[in-house]
Amino acid sequence: MSKRGVPIDIGYMPLAFKPRRKPFIKASFEMGLDPENVMVVGDGFLTDILGGQRMGMVTGAVKDVDTTQER
């Protein structure tokens, strides 16, 4: 479920142990894509970005979201 209670169909991998290669290979396989055709977007340089780059994937960093801030 999304934050607003609307169901979304997005896969995820709990306990991925990034930046190991295996979770990135598994994700690529499950999407039916070659690693060089995958973009990893994440907020952790040593996990998301480094892991994706080690696999030859395009990477994009996002700023960590502060969930404690009032709207």
Could you describe the 3D structure shown?
This protein has 71 residues and is of the alpha+beta class. The chain has a domain at 21-61. 30% of the residues lie in helices and 11% in strands. The chain has 2 helices and 2 strands, in the order αβαβ. The chain has helices spanning 21-31, 45-54, and strands spanning 39-42, 58-61. Strands 1-2 form a two-stranded parallel sheet. Helix 2 links the parallel strand 1 and strand 2. The chain is globular and about 40 Å long. The two termini are 21 Å apart. The mean pLDDT is 88.
List keywords for this structure.
single chain, 71 residues, alpha+beta, 30% helix, 11% strand
Summarize the structure.
By secondary structure, the protein is of the alpha+beta class. It has helices spanning 21-31, 45-54; strands spanning 39-42, 58-61.
Layout of helices and strands:
Elements: H1 21-31, E1 39-42, H2 45-54, E2 58-61
Parallel strand pairs: 1-2
What's the total number of strands? 2
Question: Kindly, what is the distance between the CA atoms of the first and last residues, rounded to a whole number of angstroms?
Answer: 21 Å
Q: With helices defined by DSSP (H or I, 4 residues minimum), what is the helix count?
A: 2
**Computed Rg:** 14 Å
The major pleated sheet works out as: 2 strands, parallel
* Class from secondary-structure proportions: alpha+beta
Q: DSSP strand (E) fraction?
A: 5-15%
The neighbouring-strand order within the major sheet is 1-2
Model regions low in confidence, pLDDT < 50 over at least 5 residues? none
The average pLDDT value, as a whole number, equals 88
What is the overall shape? globular
The helix-strand sequence is HEHE
Helix content: 25-40%
